[in-house]
Write a structure and sequence with these properties.
The protein is an alpha/beta fold and 388 residues long. It is 37% helix and 23% strand. It is globular and about 65 Å long. Bound molecules: flavin-adenine dinucleotide (FAD).
Length: 388
């Protein structure tokens, strides 16, 4: 382990956001003796449900966990069977039915909440300032920034790292680029305890991901570690559709009836993903930053994760890249004597790999919502499987 020189240890480094990117960064820096403060807008670690499941890839998410010294623990928490994948069209015709070799899985799944706990347990808990929503940052001189929070707190730091996701409050310091709507809106549903409550859908779904695509729509469903299935209905629609479609998303029973009408001519077994949903229904628009976004380097500030390269989820890479960025930046900081050179080295490398992933996400999204998408997705997956 490289321990930092006194000079760098004396720099005040702030990370905005305790998502997968921010926490991985804090952990790896702390492991190398570099102190940070992490500001997170959520009130506590349990104030928000963290969402569904993620598959962590070897060269990004898994590599970052190795650098964080958390890979062995991750392996005990990961679900290797969660890699199973079934692809169908709207009639229920099966195009792919992949069952993973449990001893040789490449992309095991982990629930976001479990991953967050793993990372939170590994960092010095006093470094995280919960309930601190950054409103803006003011550049002073020599790369020093003054950070302002909604609760009135102000901090002055030598380096601020934006890990605050899609609508970063730090990003405007380095670029005018803003996230653009991808043309896709999603409706998120949750079916509880499928094994006992709905065995038919548990069997249809299998242990991993179930993907039904046709007619510029899709049903994407994933079994989570807690026995629930999280379902994402996707629609290729105008930006304002979620406001104008008149689906009462806050009245789940009525909303489900209306959502079913959009899948009227889909197989009955597929419609059960909507019928059996419990709990809240969450509509969301999918945004992306311009592919290959770069900025002119500014001393004392940088971006990681969605703040740097927000992309659609159709390559399953966002969280993986956030963790890779975190590891790349942390290792660059601990290897360089000069923090500014370290940040520039990270930015140069990150632009290359993140733009490749952004291209892939965009091309996958277009393919998914084109004609005969099930056949095209099957061909893409076969090509992909041949290359790993
Ligand atoms: C439907 C869907 C499915 C996805 N599936 C996958 C997948 O399978 N695999 C994958 O790799 N990626 C997936 N992604 C992408 C993934 O969720 C993101 O890329 C990833 O979470 C980005 O991590 P991050 O740490 O950069 O930001 P985030 O996870 O967004 O974390 C940002 C953190 O910053 C905090 N924050 C925000 N603003 C402020 C502020 N002003 N002040 C203080 N704190 C703030 C937030 O509360 C949050 O804790 C998916 C995304 C979506 C929408």
């Amino acid at each position: 382990m490289i321990m930092k020189t006194k000079e760098i240890q004396e720099q005040r480094i702030a990370i905005i956001g305790a998502g997968p990117g921010g926490l991985t960064l804090a952990r790896i820096l702390q492991k190398h003796g570099v102190k940070t403060v992490v500001y997170e807008r959520e009130k506590s670690p349990t104030s928000r449900q963290q969402g569904g499941t993620l598959d962590l890839h070897e060269n990004s998410g898994q590599w970052a966990l190795k650098e964080a010294g958390l890979f062995e623990k991750f392996q005990t928490l990961a679900r290797y069977e969660g890699e199973d994948f079934r692809l169908v069209d709207k009639s229920g015709k099966v195009y792919l039915d992949e069952v993973t070799d449990k001893n040789n899985g490449k992309r095991p799944e982990i629930d976001r909440g479990i991953l967050r706990e793993l990372l939170l347990d590994s960092v010095d808990s006093t470094c995280i300032q919960w309930g601190h929503k950054l409103t803006h940052a003011v550049p002073l001189k020599n790369g020093i920034h003054e950070l302002h929070f909604e609760n009135g707190h102000v901090d002055t730091v030598h380096l601020v790292i934006a890990a605050d996701g899609a609508f970063s409050r730090i990003r405007p310091l380095v670029t005018d680029s803003v996230p653009e709507y991808t043309g896709l809106s999603m409706v998120e549903l949750n079916i509880k305890n499928v094994a006992t409550s709905h065995p038919s859908i548990a069997e249809l779904n299998g242990h991993g991901t179930f993907f039904a695509i046709a007619d510029h729509k899709s049903i994407f469903a994933q079994l989570n570690g807690n026995g629930n299935i999280r379902v994402y209905l996707s629609f290729k629609v105008d930006h304002n559709w979620l406001d104008t479609c008149e689906i009462p998303f806050n009245e789940p029973d009525k909303a489900k009836q209306q959502l079913l009408q959009y899948f009227n001519d889909w197989d009955e077994s597929l419609k059960d993903y909507i019928r059996f949903a419990d709990e809240a229904i969450l509509p969301r628009r999918i945004y992306m930053l311009p592919i290959g976004l770069k900025w002119i380097h500014k001393p004392g500030v940088t971006l990681i994760g969605d703040a740097a390269h927000l992309m659609s989820p159709f390559a399953g890479k966002g969280a993986n890249l956030a963790m890779r960025d975190a590891a790349e930046l942390a290792l660059s900081i601990v290897k360089h004597e000069n923090v500014d050179q370290a940040v520039q080295g990270y930015e140069k490398k990150m632009y290359v790999y993140s733009s490749q992933s952004a291209e892939e996400s965009d091309s996958n999204l277009k393919l998914c919502f084109s004609d005969n998408a099930a056949v095209k997705w099957m061909d893409l997956m076969k090509q992909y499987n041949d290359t790993i």
